[in-house]
Design a protein that fits this description.
Strand order of the largest sheet: 1-4-3-2-5-6
Strand content: 15-25%
Number of helices: 10
Largest sheet: 6 strands, parallel
Shape: globular
Radius of gyration: 19 Å
Bound molecules: adenosine monophosphate
Helix content: 25-40%
Distance between the termini: 40 Å
């Protein structure tokens, strides 16, 4: 059966050529030259490629504030577990480069795994409790891998700002924690989740979904929307909202729910009552795809920042 293709088509009018650097020394030289010539601000958009509108929204936000936006494309092996999809993760570098060019991106940094993790690499970053809850429970080591690669990118590129999607809310919380704890002088910025017209959060992994799975995958968004609506009409019990989300998702037999919780968006710890900011978070397996989604449940709030 045909799988859903989520990558957007390249636009017909490419902008100026994007430089590609595959080497740490080379990217540092180019950045030093840019800083010397212009003194402009540098924004970093870390990605694993297979770019879609979600990634492009981060690029556009960075471009609006920074003189140079650098997009990293690196499928980071250390954030994948042994039974996960590292080998089959979708990759299409030429297509990604076309999209980056169309956005007027100045520089793409696409190192090899050997560049990022040379023989003997041993140092990792542990973000503490955040790494062991929610997605960290089923993906041990994942947030250590994410924090380590992002710290390396920060040290290689030394961006003024780095741009992340709210879709990966736990990742944002982990990176903010790391930047504060390790004094990285980088402004961590979050952009709203970009969705398909039926609400499914865009993801490079959506291309794994078979047609019927794709239909049922919107149940994550529907459950979060339902919880948000209940909060807007006065519900404050997290337990009730959790049950509501579970029940709503359970109607979809192809969706195997991993968790549905209500958490504090900065710590990702569960809350009992909706008082300040509350984030609904869900994760589920749908066919071959592991999908996550989240939504701020307080009315009128559509982004973490
Ligand atoms: P990835 O390539 O999946 O590692 O994602 C790279 C960045 O794009 C991360 O900061 C993600 O949170 C962000 N991102 C992925 N999907 C979306 C989306 N649908 N909307 C907004 N940002 C996204």
């Amino acid at each position: 059966m045909a799988r859903q293709k989520t990558c957007p088509p390249a636009r017909p009018n490419p902008g100026p050529a994007t430089m590609v650097s595959r080497d740490i020394a080379d990217v540092r030289d180019r950045i030093a030259a840019y800083r010397y010539d212009t003194g402009g601000k540098i924004g970093l958009v870390p990605t694993m490629g297979c770019l879609h509108e979600g990634h492009l929204s981060l690029m556009r936000a960075s471009q609006a504030e920074c003189g140079l936006t650098i997009v990293s494309i690196f499928v980071n092996p250390t954030q994948f577990g042994p039974a996960e999809d590292l080998q089959s993760y979708p990759r299409d570098f030429e297509h990604d480069l076309g999209l980056a060019e169309n956005e007027g991106i100045g520089l793409v940094f696409a190192p090899s795994a050997g560049q990022m993790y040379p023989a003997g690499h041993a140092t990792t970053i542990d973000v503490g409790d955040l790494a062991g809850i929610l997605c960290g429970k089923t993906r041990p080591g994942h947030f250590t891998g994410v924090a380590t690669v992002v710290a390396k990118l920060f040290n290689i590129i030394r961006p003024d700002s780095a741009w992340f999607g709210q879709k990966d809310a736990q990742q944002v919380a982990a990176i903010r924690r790391m930047a504060i704890d390790l004094d990285f002088p980088v402004d961590i910025r979050t952009c709203p989740t970009v969705r398909e017209p039926d609400g499914l959060a865009m993801s490079s992994r959506n291309c794994y979904l078979l047609p019927e799975e794709r239909e049922q995958a919107t149940s994550l968004y529907q459950a979060l929307s339902l919880a948000r609506m209940r909060v807007s009409t006065g519900e404050t019990s997290a337990a009730k909202l959790r049950r509501l989300m579970k029940k709503s998702i359970a109607q979809n037999f192809l969706v195997e729910l991993e968790y549905a919780r209500i958490v504090d968006p900065s710590t990702m710890e569960e809350i009992n009552e909706i008082e300040g900011q509350a984030l609904g978070v869900v994760a589920a397996s749908v066919g071959r795809a592991r999908l996550i989604d989240n939504m701020l449940l307080n009315p009128a709030a559509d982004s973490l920042r």
